[in-house]
């Protein structure tokens, strides 16, 4: 019998309530290993809440989330999951290298790994530059470098390309593709529908509900549309019918 590969993330009937309001109700989905999964939906659709549940920092009212075969938030996942928040988690009063060294110490990762991750995100030449002097896109890459410390098996990136110029967006997606080719699983959230074509799989969210879980090609075939934005609208119309 063929061996079934364990998904990077398995979410089953996730239920999240915040401030007395149901944010996610009974959501189930998977993130396949070694692929780029795009988590797409408009602002307020529940993307960040789902991501927080996956990395184990969101209180949940019900359901189960397993990451790399372990319950989300398990200590064993500490150096196996890299997480980049929407706002860069960096210290402006430190240099690029000092920021990454700090996170290496927190994670218990060898400081020798700092040079490697700075090369990966193309920031080696800025190693001694104060983060406060960097552009927003460069700060995002410092956060990404920190998330890559220790060679995590899963990267969870919450809208990493927001506010970036088109050239830098393309470079980041090329980097994501290279990481996936090495067997790293990526969950990348975005509200920019044209980024969907760069993903292997898609999760489409609206109002805390999963509209679709499919490949880009499968989604277009299912809806008879030419792009993901049109497919998204078609699914909304389908649900309202």
TrEMBL record:
CDD domains: ABC_DR_subfamily_A. It comes from the Bacteria. The keyword Nucleotide-binding applies. Residues 9-232 form the ABC transporter domain. GO terms for molecular function: ATP binding; ATP hydrolysis activity. The keyword Calcium does not apply. Keywords: ATP-binding, Nucleotide-binding. InterPro entries: AAA+_ATPase, ABC_transporter-like_ATP-bd, ABC_transporter-like_CS, P-loop_NTPase. This is ABC transporter ATP-binding protein. It comes from Mumia zhuanghuii.
């Amino acid at each position: 019998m063929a061996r079934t590969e364990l998904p990077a993330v398995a979410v089953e009937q996730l239920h999240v309530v915040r401030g007395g309001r149901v944010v996610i109700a009974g959501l189930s989905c998977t993130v396949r290993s070694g692929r780029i999964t795009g988590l797409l939906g408009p602002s307020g659709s529940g993307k960040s809440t789902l991501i927080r549940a996956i990395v184990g920092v969101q209180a949940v009212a019900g359901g189960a989330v397993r990451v790399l075969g372990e319950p989300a938030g398990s200590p064993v996942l500490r150096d196996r999951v890299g997480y980049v928040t929407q706002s860069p988690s960096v210290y402006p009063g430190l240099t690029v290298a000092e920021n990454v060294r700090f996170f290496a110490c927190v994670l218990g990762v060898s400081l020798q790994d700092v040079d490697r991750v700075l090369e990966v995100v193309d920031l080696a030449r800025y190693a001694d530059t104060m983060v406060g002097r960097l552009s927003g896109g460069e700060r995002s890459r410092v956060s990404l470098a920190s998330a890559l410390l220790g060679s995590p098996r899963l990267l969870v990136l919450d809208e990493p390309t927001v506010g970036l110029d088109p050239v830098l967006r393309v470079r980041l997606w090329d980097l994501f593709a290279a990481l996936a080719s090495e067997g790293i699983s990526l969950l990348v959230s975005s509200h920019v529908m044209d980024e969907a074509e760069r993903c292997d799989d898609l999760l489409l969210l609206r109002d805390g509900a999963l509209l679709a879980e499919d490949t880009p090609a499968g989604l277009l075939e299912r809806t008879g549309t030419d792009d993901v934005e049109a497919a998204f609208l078609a699914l909304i119309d389908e649900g309202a019918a």
